[in-house]
Amino acid sequence: MKYYDKLIFELSKEGRCGYSLPVNKFPKAPEVPLQVAREAPLLLPQVSEPDVVRHYTNLSQMNFGVDTGFYPLGSCTMKYNPKINEEMAALQGFAGLHPLMPASVTQGACKVYEEMNKALAAITGMHTFTLDPCAGAHGELTGLMIMRTYHMNRGDFARTKVIVPDSAHGTNPASAAVCGLEVVEVKSLENGRIDVEALKPLLGPDIAGIMMTNPNTLGLFETEIKTIAKLVHDAGGLLYYDGANMNPLMGVVRPGDMGFDIMHLNLHKTFSTPHGGGGPGSGPVGVAKHLEGCIPGLRVSGFHGNFGVILRAYAYILALGNQHLKEVGQHAVLSANYIKECLKDKYKLPIEGVCKHEFVFDGLINDGAHDDVPGATTLDVAKRLLDYGFHAPTIYFPLLFHQALMIEPTETESKETIDAFIEVMRKIADEAAADPMLLHEAPHCTPISRPDETTAARNPILKYQDTL
């Protein structure tokens, strides 16, 4: 372990100080009431200013982000966030606002909300949006609440089930369950798309609607979407669009034109706001005109959503405009197909054909297994990528394939970066074929190698324990 890889508490030295405060010229503050006072002094590290600066600077350099390298996470659209977005969000007229300020001084923010609503409606084909939901899953829950409200307002209380494809994002069934809906799974065909014939017998008077992602999590466009929309509508249900995969469609196809009644967008994915580690996020929900009255008010968030994220996305849309928003999807689709074709002789491609913004491999063609040596897995490939300076793609999702490796290159990546990624992926495949143990033991060049992820998730150590 390097010296500055230690915890800040481990660098602490009794009596060392890295700051000084001016002499207090104000009257002495009243004593803290005993019932809320600490019984013992707060444990804080005692370190010098250089130690603090070096410690946190080194920690920041250990982190991987979109600003430091290629981040090809499938279904997460980790695209670069233009710094002009940050500059706009940092303007004092916006950053200094408080939601309880009087309307007379918040008209600029209100105008942003109004214009953002119009822009999202134009891009998606929806009638109007609510910008209140603070994340994608939050938007899903809000959209399903709208779906339930619609049916209940018509006195149709029997519709308590929602259909979810077996290729869906994991948040879809989770959101449906939280909303009190029973999940009914519809299977996919071998070509990765919804089995329309399997869908038909599922439709009935108890179905509230269907949740779909288009393109789906395999990066494939649901070519039977118009037929699916008619079947669901004829059965009295609604279509919900999971907007996590909207990136390749902007300016080309609109969910509203496909027949969707409700949808959410991940502003923090499609419209470039930085995200990860649980936030920040924004999941606006759009509806067709006949559902406008079902949009909830301030019941889904404390005020009016995550304004900073909305503002960044608004700056992104204005900077690109109609024509360049369309090019976003076109470049993302081109990049994904380029990588797929360059690697399919090394990695198993379960479904041939043109993909959209992402695609899925099913492990290595030659994993190097021999005698008593197990072959290299998708996890091994992901770990080995870290040694070469690339973040790993999404692995083991979707669940349709045992060794799923989902790759999504966004439109902001240069051909040189993509070529370098392809070269490394090919090299890793060759390493696996020649010496799978090299991959089993990867990563070799990171501060830690393979932590016990299950224990870390179930029994996390969240605070420093003084053992002295």
**CATH architecture assignment name of the largest domain:** 3-Layer(aba) Sandwich
Helix content: 25-40%
Q: What order do the helices and strands follow?
A: HHHHEHEHEHEHEHEHEHEHEEHHH
- Helix/strand structural class: alpha/beta
- Tell me about the largest β-sheet: 7 strands, mixed
Shape: globular
- Per CATH, the superfamily of the largest domain is Type I PLP-dependent aspartate aminotransferase-like (Major domain)
Termini distance?
Answer: 21 Å
Total domain units: 3
Mean pLDDT over the residues: 93
CATH topology of the largest domain: Aspartate Aminotransferase, domain 2
Radius of gyration: 25 Å
Low-confidence stretches: none
Number of strands: 10
CATH class of the largest domain: Alpha Beta
**Helix run count:** 15
- In spatial order, strands of the major sheet run 1-7-6-5-4-2-3
Strand content: 5-15%
Q: Could you describe the 3D structure shown?
A:
This protein is of the alpha/beta class and 468 residues long. It contains 15 helices and ten strands. A seven-stranded mixed sheet has the order 1-7-6-5-4-2-3, sandwiched between helices. Helix 2 packs antiparallel against helix 11, helix 4 runs parallel beside helix 11 and helix 5 crosses helix 6. The radius of gyration is 25 Å and the shape is globular.
What topology does this entry show?
Layout: H1 49-62, H2 83-89, H3 92-95, H4 107-124, E1 128-130, H5 136-153, E2 161-165, H6 171-178, E3 182-186, H7 196-199, E4 207-212, H8 225-234, E5 238-243, H9 255-258, E6 262-265, H10 267-270, E7 285-287, H11 307-343, E8 359-362, H12 378-387, E9 394-395, E10 404-407, H13 415-434, H14 436-440, H15 453-458
Parallel strand pairs: 2-3, 2-4, 4-5, 5-6
Antiparallel strand pairs: 1-7, 6-7, 8-10, 9-10
